[in-house]
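thought: fold this chain, then report.
action: predict
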Amino acid sequence: MHCPQCGQEQVSAQTRFCSRCGFPLTGVAELLLNGGISPNSIQTTASQTISPRKKGLRQGLFIFLLSFLVIPLLAILTVMAGVQEPFIVAIAAILLTVGGLLRMAYALMFESANPGEATLEQNVLAKTQSFLNKNQQSNALPPQQTIPTTAYVPPSEGNWRDTNDLTHTTVTDHTTKLLQKEE
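observation:
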């Protein structure tokens, strides 16, 4: 094996770094073993061949079939423990059977049949992240707001009173007048 950066021949394939330039060789050994194809790309293509709907149906079927294993085991354990009222068995039976069926129904109704497409949850998460990160400048000032000059123009002539015409009365004036009437 040769270093792809400097061309130095390496002593063994297990060498992690080039002895001449220090280039990391762990990924190079994996590429050579797989014929030049990255193992990460192999895994992503395999996961893209299964649609989210098919994956959800498999998960639901697994949960549903798991009930046929878990429920008898729980029943045997409750009999061995001498439990009079096996609520745990009933709860497990309801959760596993109904949960598996609900998972399959959810996959059929809401998940995409196209392989490699994002699931409903991934779409919602991406939209909320983009919404939250849209205006994320924490130390920026708010946008400039202007008030038009027409808002500062004095009111037009009309039925306005002069301030000298207004009478000035207070609470104490009224109380004083009431006391003067009583005397």
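thought: worth noting. The radius of gyration is 39 Å.
final: tokens above.
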